[in-house]
Design brief:
single chain; about 400 residues
Length: about 400
C-alpha cells in the first residue's frame, strides 16, 4: 500500500526529506524555517491541519515529534489565535516553549506538546515557562494566561488521566490533540466561535457558559455570532471579496491607504455584473493579488450622490460607504481554491480598478481568519508602506 499523502500532495516523510533535518539552527533557509513556511503557506484550513497532524501521530521518532509540535502550534490559527512557533530543544539563556497562541487583549496560551519524545512527566517545566513569558508583560498588555499541555497518542501515558494533576498550577490546562482537532472542525463549520474556545481554555471558566455551549451543540445549532462578526444584523448579510486591482490613477496600495482607510469608501465594478445586489450591512474583505487579504469592513450604505468622494466615480458600478473597517497588521493568505475563483471573475470582467465578487460565509471566514475580533485598530502592512489608524 503506497504511503498516504496529505492534502498538500506529499507525505510527511517526503516533506521532511525535502526540507532537511529539523533542529534549532537559525536562518531563513534553515530546515526548520523552510518547514514552517511550508506549513503556514500550504495548510490553509482545519481539514488540512487534521490530515497533517494525524499522519504525524502515526509515526515515531524525533523528527516526527518536531513536525507534530509545529503542526499542533499551527492548529491554533484555525481556532482563531495568532500563533508563534517555539524551539525544539532548550537553549541556554532562553525560555523553552513549544509554541504560543495569542488572542490579543484576551488570552495568552503557552504550549507544551507531549509525544514519545517528551522527557519528563510533570508539569513543572510548563509552569516555569508560563511564568517567565508573562512576568515581563506591561500592565496594559497583561491578559489571562494559561499553560496548555497537549497530549498526543504518541505520549507514553496515552490518556489524559495519566498526566499528573495540575495541583498548585491553577493556570495550567491539559487537553488531547484529538479534542483540539475537534474544536478546529467546529470553528471551521461555524458551530463554535473563537469566544467559545477562549471560554473552554481560560483559567477558572464558569460552568453555565459551558452548559450553554453543550446545549447548542446538542441541538445542532450554529454559533449565534460566528467570527468575525461581533453582532447580528436583522437579515443574513451577504459576503463579498473586493479585489483591489490598480488602474491608471492609483496602485492597489494607494487605493487601500487613501480611499478605503482614509475616506471609508470603495468604488467597484462587479464580477457578477452591474445588477449584483450588494446591500447595507453586507461584509466585504479586501484582497490585493500577490499580497493577500489586507482587511475587511461592512457596507454602511450604497451611495447615490457620488460628487467629490472619489475621482471619476462614474466608472464604477457601485460606490460603497464603509463602516466597521479593519485593516490587518499582517495580510491573511487566501487559500488557492478561493483565489482561483476570484481570479476567474477578474478575467471574465476584464476591468481595471477594484472588483467585487460574491463569497460564501465560510470562504469569507477563511479569508479573514486568524484575528481577534475584539481588536478594533486599523493597521495594514501593504507592499512597502504601513497604514495605522485609530478605531473607526
Amino acid at each position: 500500500m503506497p504511503p498516504e499523502t496529505t492534502p498538500i500532495g506529499v507525505t510527511v516523510n517526503q516533506l521532511l526529506m525535502l526540507v532537511g533535518h529539523l533542529d534549532d539552527s537559525p536562518g531563513f533557509d534553515a530546515p526548520r524555517e523552510r518547514f514552517r513556511r511550508f506549513l503556514t503557506e500550504r495548510v490553509t484550513d482545519a481539514q488540512m491541519a487534521r490530515a497533517f497532524v494525524e499522519q504525524c501521530q502515526r509515526s515515531i521518532g524525533e523528527q516526527y515529534h518536531r513536525a507534530l509540535q509545529d503542526a499542533i502550534v499551527l492548529l491554533g490559527r484555525f481556532l482563531g489565535f495568532e500563533t508563534e512557533f517555539g524551539t525544539y530543544q532548550r537553549i541556554a539563556g532562553a525560555v523553552k516553549f513549544d509554541g504560543q497562541w495569542r488572542s490579543r487583549r484576551r488570552l495568552h496560551a503557552v504550549l507544551e506538546v507531549r509525544t514519545d519524545h517528551t522527557p519528563r512527566p510533570d508539569l513543572d517545566a510548563l509552569s516555569r515557562s508560563l511564568a517567565a513569558l508573562t512576568a515581563g508583560a506591561h500592565p496594559e498588555h497583561q491578559v489571562r494566561s494559561v499553560g496548555l499541555c497537549v497530549v498526543t497518542p504518541l505520549y507514553a501515558g496515552r490518556r489524559l488521566e495519566d498526566v499528573p494533576a495540575a495541583e498548585g498550577h491553577e493556570n495550567l490546562r491539559v487537553v488531547s490533540s484529538r479534542s483540539l482537532l475537534w474544536l478546529a472542525d467546529m470553528v471551521g463549520s461555524g458551530r463554535l466561535r473563537h469566544e467559545d474556545v477562549l471560554r473552554l481554555l481560560s483559567p477558572g471558566s464558569a460552568l453555565d457558559p459551558m452548559v450553554e455551549l453543550l446545549e447548542r451543540l446538542a441541538s445542532g445549532a450554529e454559533a449565534q455570532a460566528p467570527l468575525p462578526f461581533p453582532g447580528e444584523a436583522r437579515r443574513e448579510p451577504d459576503f463579498w471579496v473586493g479585489s483591489i486591482v490598480g488602474d491608471a490613477m492609483a496602485t492597489p496600495e494607494q487605493i487601500v491607504e487613501s480611499v478605503i482607510a482614509k475616506r471609508h469608501v470603495l468604488g467597484a465594478s462587479f464580477a457578477g455584473g452591474p445588477q449584483a445586489g450588494v446591500r447595507a450591512d453586507d461584509w466585504v474583505c479586501f484582497f490585493v493579488p500577490g499580497t493577500g487579504v489586507v482587511g475587511h469592513g461592512q457596507v454602511a450604505s450604497v451611495l447615490e450622490d457620488r460628487a467629490d468622494l472619489i475621482r471619476e466615480s462614474n466608472r464604477f458600478s457601485r460606490l460603497l460607504r464603509l463602516k466597521n473597517l479593519e485593516l490587518y497588521d499582517v495580510p491573511v493568505p487566501m487559500d488557492i481554491v478561493t483565489e482561483l475563483h476570484v481570479s476567474a471573475g477578474l478575467r471574465d470582467l476584464g476591468a481595471a480598478g477594484p472588483v467585487l465578487a460574491p463569497l460564501t460565509r465560510q470562504e469569507f471566514l477563511k479569508c479573514t481568519s486568524f484575528r481577534d475580533e475584539s481588536e478594533h485598530k486599523v493597521g495594514a502592512d501593504i507592499g512597502s508602506g504601513t497604514v495605522s489608524r485609530e478605531s473607526v
